[in-house]
Amino acid sequence: MRSMTGYGRYSFKCDHFSIIVEAKAVNHRFFECSTRIPNEFLHLEEKIHSTVHNEIKRGKIDLFIHVEKAEFSKHKLEVDYELLKEYIKIANELKGSSNQVGGCLDVNTLLFDDRLIKKVEMEDKHAEEISLAILNSVTACIQELVDMKEREGDRLKEDLFIQLNHISNVLSKIETKAPDINLHLQKRMEERVASSLKELSEAVVDRIIAEACLYAEKADVNEELVRMRSHLSHFKEISENHDFPIGRKLDFLVQEMNREINTIGSKIHDAEVRQFVVSLKSYIEKIKEQVQNVE
């Protein structure tokens, strides 16, 4: 079992550059990965997302990639000398056309003309090496994150199993008490019907008693108890499974268990059993909250 929350960090350093990758995971219904990476390496995003999704199937992942002391950000300036010649030519023509035109071309002004002078990114000889190092660092960081998620998941599973054991114990009490409740209900209904229908024909009395017995049978909760035991067993089986994600499956089982408990509460009107049902609902609510954090 894995928790959906966790944190991972990995750093790599060599003579030419250093890389720090951090990953944070929080609850989310589906898989979502957000990556912050230097613009020069945006082409790696698809591979990075694929790497993350191969290991994590559910939750929101924020990935921060820092690249330092690398030479990939160097630029150089290129001048369009043909255009500069045109500037000079036009300037001279304007000055020659009228004695009212004065001044001269200013270098400081020309330096900020992006049509004349362009900033060009220099090719980085370490770019391929850095890209490979980034992907390897992401893989290592995600493994750190997964390790933490699994440690948190082990603690989560331990607590969930405690709640499941509490539920099992309460079910045992209901299973012990339910047959006596059903028998007592059936006998009481038979007596009340028989005493109140003395003046009716025997056929009518028999039919009414049969219907009363049918009502008593409908109050039987054996099927609900059997299904609850099955849900508990299935819950533990899924929890031990390493085929992720399992959170949605567990959430569905919790809903089914809650439905069975509500049915038991509606069928049996015994005061002690009602207290058992209240306890069961309390344990189910705790499980429901914890399952929201399971991947």
Structure write-up:
It is a single chain. The strands form 2 sheets. Strands 1-2-4-3 form a 4-stranded mixed β-sheet. A two-stranded antiparallel ribbon has the order 5-6. It folds into 3 domains: about 5-70 and about 125-150, Ribosomal Protein S5, domain 2; about 75-120, no CATH class; about 150-290. It is elongated, with a radius of gyration of 37 Å. The longest helix has about 70 residues, at about 125-195. It has helices spanning about 45-55, 80-95, 105-110, 125-195, 200-220, 220-240, 245-265, 270-290, and strands at about 5-15, 20-25, 30-35, 60-70, 75-80, 115-120. α1 (about 45-55) packs parallel to α4 (about 125-195), α4 (about 125-195) packs antiparallel against α5 and α6 packs antiparallel against α7. The protein has 8 helices and 6 strands. About 60% of the residues lie in helices and about 15% in strands. It is α+β, with helices and mostly antiparallel strands and about 300 residues long.
Helix segment tally: 8
| Largest beta-sheet characterization | 4 strands, mixed
Q: How many strand units?
A: 6
Count the domains. 3
Protein name: TIGR00255 family protein
InterPro entries: YicC-like_C (IPR013551), YicC-like_N (IPR013527), YicC/YloC-like (IPR005229)
Organism: Alkalihalophilus marmarensis DSM 21297
Cofactor: a divalent metal cation
